[in-house]
Protein: Transcriptional regulator
Organism: Vibrio penaeicida
Amino acid sequence: MELRTLRYFLKVYEVGSVSGAAKHCFVSQPSITSAIKNLESVLNTTLFVRHARGVAPTPAAQQLYPEAKRMIDSEKNILQTFRDQPVTVPLRLGIMRSLGAKRMSLLLQHLSQDIEHLELTLVDADEPCDARILVGSSRVSDDQFVPIWEDTYQLALPHHWAEAQKGSLNFEDLDGMPFIHREPCIALDSLKDSLLQRGIQFNARANIRTIDYAWPLVQAGVGAALLPNWAEITGSECIALRLIEGFDCSLSVGMAVNISQRSIPLMNQVIASCRRFADTI
């Protein structure tokens, strides 16, 4: 089994495409295809299943990935022993949407300073990666979850609205209220379920996908929005934050590491580093 073949396998796994892997590796697509077929023959298993947009890894590929990554990393370490430049430590980190750019930047800065020569690659949370930053309820059963933040959700209102003059709101106050509808949002889905159970209408005035647009739209008076207690939100003087009586939504946000990755020394470093970061908050 050649290390070059394993490098091709890793790249196909990470980008989800034979053609994409060929571009990254600066080789022809048939070279990648041939290498993967030879590897499947040696291992007597199927590693990828083709679909319209590329390839999907099989359970065998998911099992092979951390082992192959460890071997390639070991090769880099051996080569670097005889070179002057330090070996970079690659970490593919999947990031769930709308987790807060400011605090995520602080976490990534902490990881980079805490783990020597760390080379971060940020991808979407549903892409192949070494670990994920996400809401705890989104993790899979065989993930180890390290809590970092606890997000408590409140209703953000334009200051000039009559409801903003109240100390808190009840569900009836929300009947017909124009809302900034964000999807996906676990907290908002929970609120909509609570309203539906009470026969209260949810009135979507604007539809967005990322939280970054939410409070500027509230400030502009477009509608109300259910928002977490991030410092940049609670510190805004242009919106009013109010609790909803009978509705308590707190979501734990942290790092999820699949159990298959726990044998990789780097992942133990990452877990320990996240715990140290959480202790400083």
